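User: quick one, fold this
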Amino acid sequence: MSVHAHAGKPVRPEDRINIGQLVSDYFLQTPDVGIIGQQVSFGTSGHRGCATKLSFNEHHIVAICQAVAEYRASQNITGPLFLGKDTHALSEPAFASAISVLIANGVNVVIQSDEGFTPTPVISRLIICHNNSHGENSLADGLIITPSHNPPTDGGIKYNPPHGGPAEGSITKQIEQRANELIQGNLVAVKQTPYTQALKSNLLTKQDFIQHYVNQLEQVVDMQAIAKAGVTIGVDPLGGSGIAYWPVIAEKYGIKLKIVNPVVDASFAFMPLDKDGKIRMDCSSPYAMAGLIAMKDDFDISVGNDPDFDRHGIVTKSGGLMNPNHYLAVAIHYLMTNRAWPKQSKIGKTLVSSSLIDRVANKIHRPLSEVPVGFKWFVDGLSDSSYAFGGEESAGAAFIARDGSTWTTDKDGFIMALLAAEILAVTGKDPHQHYLELVGELGEPCYGRVEAVATFEQKKVLTALSSSDITVNSLAGEQINQILSHAPGNNAAIGGIKVTTENGWFAARPSGTEEIYKIYAESFVDEQHLQAIISEAQAIVSAAFKAAGL
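Assistant:
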């Protein structure tokens, strides 16, 4: 994909969204679930859509919340449901819709005390803490209303069951099917209480989520080391749900932290445009993070997060914005050599993350577990602390507490951001400097990702590919040594294919939400070798489509 002429530049008048129209469409437009694009559809991180495209309307939210209430009842989940929302325009009306349905179904709902914003990792932490202290007789779960880093026009909602992390496919499929049935039935079976009445219900509780989370941060990050070293931190929340948390963190732990962008604006008109010319709060994008990158020399470490704070962007004086894969490798190396965790604790990575992580794991003699795309695959391991770390190439990760106990089972952008400051405080070197040392010893990767249009039928073919469908025996001049259709860490289906050689690999898989497929690739030789891998990968996928008559 070519870079848009306005990428990294300020939002223009024509880029702004009409929030009034968007919210009106949320309440007034009626989706037709007979049309695939208007159905409730859970991807790797919940249901997402746009009100004007009839893919995220009140019908979707009330049906999803009714389905969740019914799922809770079927599983005897009788404790509180922690409900959070981010700063997207559609999150506010969806929050109200959710409360009206959950209260009508007799669910004990807990929200932030000032009805403010709540990050994803905070909901996960709340669920874990409650369930650790109350046990099986009062299990808690949660809902977070967020489309993550998606453009301002979008809305989203995701369910975290009692383990605190993203719901498994078996759960989301059940919720998805029931929600579509409810919409098909004109919402007759959906219970609702008027919002103003629901707010007065004894079933609705307000709690200071901010203090609860912030007070525990020192359990997972060495906040004293950061304060003692005087590390200066520049923070750009990108207008996201954690904006009120940072000042409390700074005051509680006495760290030198400045919020460089204190604006919350549902149009996100303060954002530089992303690579494709759209407004997107992607903290791993050098275009979306252009403002913070320009300030890199003003702070020892600069950090950004997406709207629900489950992702992180790390900017250093020495190297600017870090590639997510590079930071994951550094974070893993630091944590595994500076925490007194059991030697058998695993490093979890998705199969499209950099093989530099494999080399780091081998260097420090720690077991590695490679799983399919989606943070849900790390949940069980983080729950029982058999995984010390779980990370995705898309700048989402979490790790266990300093004492080896579970911290969150969902991605936590706060702790990954603060870890960068801890690394500098403890070692005297920033994460980019550590990266240079690692690649000097282990080799430097060239990593790329490309997308291409794919029909529904083509996506089905790609999902079902196996090693027997690959007829070539070499890739970019090297012998193929492994063809994977299932992840080696848990033998779960990849939903695509991964092909590896001694110095490179590619993975091809269809998107769960768009009519495209993606190719991820990496080379430890050079950029030219990477491009050869990508080109041959595209030819392999095209051959598979042709063999299927597509």
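User: anything notable?
Assistant: The radius of gyration is 23 Å.
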